[in-house]
Design brief:
- The termini are far apart.
- This protein has a 5-stranded mixed sheet. A 5-stranded mixed sheet has the order 6-7-8-9-10.
- About 4% of the residues have low confidence.
- The longest helix is centred in the N-terminal third of the chain and has 48 residues.
- By secondary structure, the protein is α+β, with helices and mostly antiparallel strands.
- It is built from 8 helices and 10 strands.
């Protein structure tokens, strides 16, 4: 009788735990779906009414800070959209949560295919649902809108809104992180000065970094335009540790300085050279 009672109690406990986990999962999925629908509603309203301020209000505090050209991106998106009411044809989201090292966060990647009249569009965006280390990240971080609804577009998590004049940023990240390794045109993203002034040790380290398709990953990216040009920064995970990558561009949109270190203050972007990568790879 005691064995039967124990088995019954165990079954009830397992059932309660399972139901609890299932309930938490359902709540999480509902929260993600609601966040996705909330953005879609504001986004379409902003497009249809050409409301720049409403679209800007969708972005997190950190995204606005990290996208000094956000107004240009907003103007591009509002101009790209033809007049008419938007109708969703397909949408979806995927969510990733990370716990530990005081870096607890949950980030959602979404897309929505829609049409207005005879025009088809696809919008992709990143929405941070939580971030323990930096609550100002919570909200929409990056958006890309383009005509057509296929999967033929590269999408990278760069703060703000993508527009044609920023395509060179996508090209840089694709070359460094898209796991194709060193190709014939890899060095096309660099200026002649940065290649000439970098040592063989640094160039060899750069090739090993690009060729490594196991140890490195790109998290998110942001930009600065304080010097009149573009300086881009990216959070990078390499060999189980976290770093910041800095890329400085000249007027021809070529990388004229590249540096990697533990934080922004350790980067050296003053001279046309590649710094920091060999030290990190060889440590």
């Amino acid at each position: 009788m005691k064995k039967i009672l124990l088995i019954c109690l165990s079954a009830v406990m397992l059932s309660t735990v399972s139901c609890s986990k299932l309930s938490l999962l359902e709540d999480s999925v509902k929260k993600q779906r609601k966040a996705m629908k909330d953005f879609e509603s504001k986004f379409f309203q902003a497009l249809e009414n050409k409301d720049a301020e409403l679209l800007k209000s969708c972005f997190s505090e950190r995204a606005v800070e990290r996208a000094p050209d956000l107004d240009k991106g907003i103007a591009y998106v509002l101009d790209l959209y033809r007049d008419g009411k938007a109708t969703i044809s397909d949408d979806n989201q995927s969510c990733y949560s990370h716990y530990g090292e005081n870096r607890d966060y949950t980030v959602m990647h979404c897309y929505c295919e829609f049409y207005a009249g005879e025009n088809n569009y696809k919008v992709m965006w990143t929405d941070w649902l939580s971030n323990k280390a930096d609550p100002s990240m919570v909200g929409v971080y990056s958006v890309e809108l383009f005509e057509g609804t296929g999967n033929d577009k590269e999408y990278f998590d760069i703060a703000g809104i993508a527009y044609p004049e920023r395509e060179f940023l996508d090209n840089s990240i694709s070359t460094l992180f898209d796991y194709n390794g060193v190709q014939e045109d890899t060095y096309d993203i660099f200026s002649a000065d940065v290649l000439k002034n970098s040592s063989k040790v640094q160039l060899d380290a750069l090739e090993r970094f690009i060729d490594d398709n196991q140890s490195k990953s790109f998290d998110k990216m942001w930009i600065s335009t304080e010097d009149g040009g573009y300086t881009a920064y990216a959070d990078v995970r390499f060999a189980l540790d976290y770093y910041v990558l800095g890329l400085k561009y000249n007027d021809d949109k070529k990388i004229t300085a590249m540096s990697m270190g533990k934080d922004i203050s350790s980067l050296d972007l003053d001279e046309p050279a590649i710094t920091g990568i060999s030290e990190i790879i060889d440590q």
